[in-house]
């Protein structure tokens, strides 16, 4: 095995390792220069890939904000438990204590008949009629707040159990609406995963086709290299780096597109949040996800270039 000349420390390393590293560095630089030599074609390819990568990011962002909107609009609505008329305050507070001990319950508030009467008195058209009543006909009401992470099934079991409690007259719950929203969010999450997989495949095909055209245009040069003994790995290395560059640039651009979508949504969501007393805030994409997109895109670019270049060089051999 040939070796490099002795280093200052008296050590040497095998020349094949140094040549391998030098060729990797040359391949990365040469492929980048080749991409920069045709800026329009490179920009168009990168833009198409970036749009394909930005679409699942955008849908993921919108899905997260729909979920936040559902919570602000009452996904976790308070469940009202109306006790039978004549139930005492002690019974109401005892039932509230029992409900607070359930794992799916976040809080329970007891509304007295007097508080209910005061709320009715503030409503237009009721104040005059209330003066004609000899006694307060309203019952105690328990306002049960499920936990934010409680599933629809656990809340349904809670409502069913409260229906069966002694002294309960009626349970008012928007469970059907909550189930529908949760089901729609589940469909949306699955759709985002399918869309991401399809668009990842599109990125593979775009890179693969670009590398295929590049290899076809340099078939004579590749043939000469292989005739003088160059290995397939040596020949395809610049094309693999080209795929990496395509993926990396498109991933950075896709992350930029996603940030622009966040900025475009910020103002209308802020106005919508004012309508819901500040309960609604835009959910932004996490930094780790924005940082992972260029890395994942570079891997996709390398994979597309690897598959196509191996197939093309096998044909040329």
Layout of SSEs?
Blueprint: H1 15-37, H2 39-73, E1 79-83, H3 89-100, E2 105-111, H4 113-122, H5 127-130, E3 141-146, H6 152-163, E4 168-172, H7 175-217, H8 219-227, H9 232-275, H10 287-316
Helix pairs in contact: 1-9, 2-7, 2-9, 6-7, 7-9, 7-10, 9-10
Task: Compute the number of strand runs.
Answer: 4
Radius of gyration: 33 Å
Percent of residues in beta strands?
Answer: 5-15%
Query: What shape does the CA trace take?
Result: rod-shaped
| H/E element order | HHEHEHHEHEHHHH
The mean pLDDT is: 80
Total domains, how many? 2
Structural class: alpha+beta
Number of helices: 10
Strand order of the largest sheet: 2-3-1-4
Largest sheet: 4 strands, antiparallel
**Subunit organisation of the chains:** single chain
Low-confidence stretches: 1-10
Distance between the termini: 28 Å
Helix content: over 70%
């Amino acid at each position: 095995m040939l070796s490099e000349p002795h280093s200052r420390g008296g050590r040497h390393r095998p020349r094949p390792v140094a040549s391998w590293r030098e060729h990797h560095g040359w391949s990365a630089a040469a492929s980048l220069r080749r991409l920069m030599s045709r800026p329009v074609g490179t920009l168009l390819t990168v833009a198409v890939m970036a749009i394909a990568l930005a679409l699942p990011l955008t849908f993921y962002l919108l899905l997260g904000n729909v979920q936040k909107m559902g919570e602000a609009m009452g996904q976790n609505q308070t469940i009202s438990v109306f006790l039978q008329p004549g139930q005492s305050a002690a019974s109401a507070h005892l039932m509230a204590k029992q409900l607070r001990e359930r794992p799916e319950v976040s809080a329970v508030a007891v509304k007295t008949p007097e508080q209910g009467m005061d709320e009715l008195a503030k409503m237009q058209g009721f104040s005059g009629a209330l003066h004609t009543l000899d006694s307060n006909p309203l019952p105690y009401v328990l306002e049960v707040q499920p936990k934010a992470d409680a599933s629809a099934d656990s809340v349904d079991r809670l409502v069913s159990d409260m229906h069966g409690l002694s002294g309960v007259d009626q349970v008012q719950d928007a469970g059907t609406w909550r189930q529908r929203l949760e089901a729609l969010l589940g469909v949306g999450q699955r759709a985002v995963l399918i869309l991401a997989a399809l668009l990842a495949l599109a990125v593979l095909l775009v890179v693969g086709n670009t590398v295929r055209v590049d290899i076809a245009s340099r078939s004579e040069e590749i043939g000469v290299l292989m005739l003088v003994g160059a290995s397939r790995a040596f020949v395809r290395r610049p094309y693999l780096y080209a795929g990496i560059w395509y993926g990396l640039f498109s991933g950075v651009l896709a992350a930029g597109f996603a940030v622009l979508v966040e900025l475009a949504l910020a103002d209308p969501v802020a106005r919508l949040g004012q309508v819901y007393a500040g309960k609604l805030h835009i959910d932004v994409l996490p930094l780790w996800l924005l940082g992972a997109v260029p890395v994942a895109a570079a891997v996709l670019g390398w994979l597309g270039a690897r598959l196509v270049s191996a197939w093309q060089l096998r044909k040329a051999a």
